[in-house]
Amino acid sequence: MQMRLKPIGVVQNEFVEAVPKGWETALHRLVLDAQWAPALEGIEGFSHLYVLFWLHGIHGEIKLHVHPEDRQDLPEVGIFATRTPRRPNPIGLEVVELVSREGSVLTVRGLDALNGSPVLDVKPYLPRGDAVPGARTPEWLRKLWE
Amino acid sequence: MQMRLKPIGVVQNEFVEAVPKGWETALHRLVLDAQWAPALEGIEGFSHLYVLFWLHGIHGEIKLHVHPEDRQDLPEVGIFATRTPRRPNPIGLEVVELVSREGSVLTVRGLDALNGSPVLDVKPYLPRGDAVPGARTPEWLRKLWE
Lengths: 146, 146
Prior knowledge:
Two copies of one chain form a homodimer. Chain A is built from two helices and eight strands; from the N terminus they run ββββββββαα. By secondary structure, chain A is mainly beta. Chain A has a six-stranded antiparallel beta barrel with strand order 1-2-7-6-3-8. The radius of gyration of chain A is 16 Å and the shape is globular. At the A-B interface, strand 3, strand 5, strand 6, strand 8 and helix 1 of A face strand 3, strand 5, strand 6, strand 8 and helix 1 of B.
């Protein structure tokens, strides 16, 4: 089975290389191809969205284990137990706040993507199902978030 | 830029065609290729995961608008305002509960995928960021959930 993706648009922001801080509050533009403007109709009814994008800045070999966020004081875990961008299929996933839409351009807050990242999909965030506030996480994550 | 995906495994369940009910409570097996067993180490620390999979049962033309879940009494909206599987890039996304892991096989609950769907990625669910219980949704969605 061939599984090929086509970009539906591109991320525009100020981030040209990975930086550890500032993504959460910055504004980002998802500039979709003009043909998709009708496909966004009604999206303003949602305050939050999922954005799927291609991690185009990622190259090289995929390891099986990593220290979360390169923190050597945290235990090595399997890559699928982390959100590392170095994954077999480099698809980035973020919950973002939808700030506004103009035609085929969405302005969002809370995206951890580099400028120029191809946008693959935009999905509405449905709190029934998507919001699991009590989800359990491992001890090392609490250390990371301190 | 070439964006090609490779399956990391396959969904095994009882659903051979789309059905409206029963996905939420059924158990599903994500049978990853054996090489990925080490990459799953530590994932048991999370109660919930994101699963990204290829919507391999979807063929034909992509419309720009749909009635949500084919409900003619609901307004037509753009496809990106819905979770319809008929999308430019047919990537399915679900939050699932991780029930158990044995080697490279995950048993999960809450997956809306057909048997045989290629698995693309598994990511840990991080409530800080991923859980937005107060996210706003449009009026038609409340009607759908009644």
